[in-house]
Amino acid sequence: MKSKIKIKNLHKAFGSKKVLYGVSLEVQQAESLVIIGPSGTGKSVLIKNILGLIAPDKGEIYIDGIETTHLSERKREPFYKQMGMLFQGGALFDSLSVWENVAFGLMEAQHMPIDQARKEAEKYLESVGLSKSIAEQYPADLSGGMKKRVSLARAIAIKPEILFFDEPTTGLDPVMAETINQLIVKSVKKLGATAVTITHDIKSATTIADRIAMLYDGRIVWEGTKDEFLKTKDPYIVQMKTGATKGPIGN
Ligand SMILES: Nc1ncnc2c1ncn2[C@@H]1O[C@H](COP(=O)(O)OP(=O)(O)O)[C@@H](O)[C@H]1O
Ligand SMILES: [Mg+2]
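# adenosine-5'-diphosphate complex -> structure
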């Protein structure tokens, strides 16, 4: 096994509010890690640090064995170019059509000619169960589930080595959520990518994950395989699964 992402003792505060204090975590190549935890615990902040969108106060982030937080912007670029991201809420460009959204990274970062990019976009739309007849539509015309599919197509179209999914099923009905979970599993496997998914949805976590880590109170409080997750009596995980108000969370 090869380490793809390794985080050591990461700290991040916003003013006096300490969000992450001492997060350590490792993701192997082609592994699917899911990070769970209640809302507001710093899950999005953690992946924004890995993506280089936020600078940590302290700690190290290794990608393919290279520490990235201290690199110049120019030296960091190749690392970030191999990452695909499905943001919370989808974050499609409203002024671009569906196919232009999916082809955006291909044309901007990879300088693919427009005709070829459109063909690629249509191929990825089909791979997430969308007909190419919607290629000319705009995000405002789409349902929530369709927007998620378009966002997923956009994230995978650049064939990233690492994929991040931030709350991919939030706001979807249970059937659509399960469809998106399965599309994520299928797409990640097909690419052979390393995947990091954030969710507070336990069903989503157990569908997507090889391994699960729980973030709480600024640290990773539990980590294990999916099987260990299903069996553990750890009080944090038990409370996360049952939604009980009594336990270590929220006291
Ligand atoms: N850019 C920012 N400036 C100030 N506070 C922030 C910023 N981003 C996140 N926070 C705060 O950090 C905490 C964790 O946020 P977040 O990572 O979004 O939580 P979640 O686990 O729900 O994804 C929250 O209290 C949030 O308000
Ligand atoms: Mg979040």
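# post-check
Strands lie at 3-14, 17-28, 32-36, 58-63, 66-67, 83-86, 162-166, 194-199, 211-216, 219-225.
Residues 174-191 form the longest helix (18 residues).
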